[in-house]
Amino acid sequence: MHDGIHVEQAGLPSATICTDRFIPTARGMAQMWGAADYPTIFTEHPIENLTREQLRQRAEGLAAEVVAVLTGS
């Protein structure tokens, strides 16, 4: 969150992805850094047990959302 918010504040589009277990933390961090409306993409927790293929599939499922955040669509 910290990096994404600061990159965005520096004028570079960013997309932050967190697992849904960290929704309250992500929202709190965004609020703390003065970016309450910072768009964060959430995916199902956990991810550490996923295979490389499962992670790829998860990423592909998030790709459209990442593009939308980066382009402001």
Keywords:
73 residues, mainly alpha, two-stranded parallel sheet
Low-confidence stretches: none
Looking across the biggest beta sheet, what order are the strands in?
1-2
Give the helix proportion (percent range).
40-55%
Q: What best-fitting shape do the alpha-carbon axes yield?
A: globular
Strand content: 5-15%
Q: What class, by secondary structure content? A: mainly alpha
Total DSSP helices = 3
The description of the largest β-sheet is: 2 strands, parallel
Order of helices and strands: HEHEH
Alpha carbon gyration radius: 13 Å
Distance, first to last CA: 20 Å
Mean pLDDT: 96
Overview of this structure, please?
By secondary structure, the chain is mostly helical. The chain has one domain. The protein contains three helices and two strands. The chain has helices spanning 2-9, 23-32, 52-71, and strands at residues 16-19, 40-43. A two-stranded parallel ribbon has the order 1-2. Strand 1 (16-19), helix 2 and strand 2 (40-43) form a beta-alpha-beta unit. The longest helix has 20 residues, at 52-71. The two termini are 20 Å apart. The mean pLDDT is 96.
Short description:
52% of the residues lie in helices and 11% in strands. It contains three helices and two strands. A two-stranded parallel ribbon has the order 1-2.
Topology:
Blueprint: H1 2-9, E1 16-19, H2 23-32, E2 40-43, H3 52-71
